[in-house]
Amino acid sequence: MGISIWQIVLVLVIIVILFGAGKIPRVMGDIAKGIKSFKAGMREEEQEEINNEGETIEGEKVKSSKRKTNNSKKK
């Protein structure tokens, strides 16, 4: 019940008929560019999350040090 070699050949023949032999490399190149830009976008998003976490941690340190100074002034 699996995919046989003839089914794969038939699909490839239909793709060649629809797109033509000259357009297939361009289509595959466009797909590769899309994948590369997607990966770059994912890396940028991860980098932004890391930067935001670093800012939050530094912000908490600043807030906690301000609290200590405020508490010491009250006493």
What does this structure look like?
By secondary structure, the protein is mostly helical. It has a domain at 25-66. The protein has two helices and no strands. The chain has helices spanning 5-19, 23-74. The longest helix has 52 residues, at 23-74. The radius of gyration is 28 Å and the shape is elongated. The N and C termini lie far apart (81 Å). The model has no long low-confidence stretch (mean pLDDT 78).
Number of helices: 2
Low-confidence stretches: none
Content of β-strand: under 5%
Characterize the main sheet. Answer: none
Structural class: mainly alpha
Rg calc:
28 Å
* Succession of helices and strands: HH
The rough form would be described as elongated
Tell me the number of strands.
0
**In whole angstroms, how far apart are the ends?**
81 Å
Element layout with pairings:
Layout: H1 5-19, H2 23-74
How would you concisely characterize the structure shown here?
The protein has 75 residues and is mainly α. The protein is 89% helix and 0% strand. The protein contains two helices and no strands.
Features:
single chain, 75 residues, mainly alpha, 2 helices, elongated
